[in-house]
Here is the input.
Amino acid sequence: MALGGAAIAQSTNQASGTSPSAHGDAFLGKHAIKALPFGGAVKNLNKVEETLAQITPDTPGFTVSSLEAAKLKFTNSMILHEAYFGNLGGDSKAAGPQTDRLLAQAYGSRLRWEELFRALGNALGGGSGWAILDWDFNAHGPRTYWAGDHTNALAFGAPLLVMDMYEHAYAIDYGASAKDYIEAFFKNVHWAEVERRLGVAQKADAALRS
Ligand SMILES: [Fe+2]
Here is the structure.
């Protein structure tokens, strides 16, 4: 299926220990575009990082704050799009055993969780935002979170399952029907990848508590 048909691209930060810049890794502007569709965010992030490197104590506060706001927006857009494309391409088989068990523990059953996740997606339909199942390091379990835009991410979470609810994700294939897009999304969830992310988050959570 064609989810996210618009021309955007996946990326990775190829910063290494040997910085070609005197400014440090935070200003490298070297995020590389992969062959997936969200290059705009990556190119803009690189430009913002390069511009931030030029800030001096005399730079006006409004310039600093708008650059930092843009950096957060483009960074989260890159991270969320990578997670989104990474959790698609499955065949809709049942969720993995740990995902299933922990969603039931948190929501009563995985189906009840899915009902609520779909409801959030539908509520965002026609506008913009993300429906995100995070590992919540505060709650020590999976929790669904709303994000009205790229900057509304849970402060201490790791995305497990991400659904792009910006209209560009579905308007080409489904018109205004967020409902049909959500239906197709759930038919294509890569549950093995969600289970893998959950396992990594559980280990990280245990390490943080030790
Ligand atoms: Fe998107």
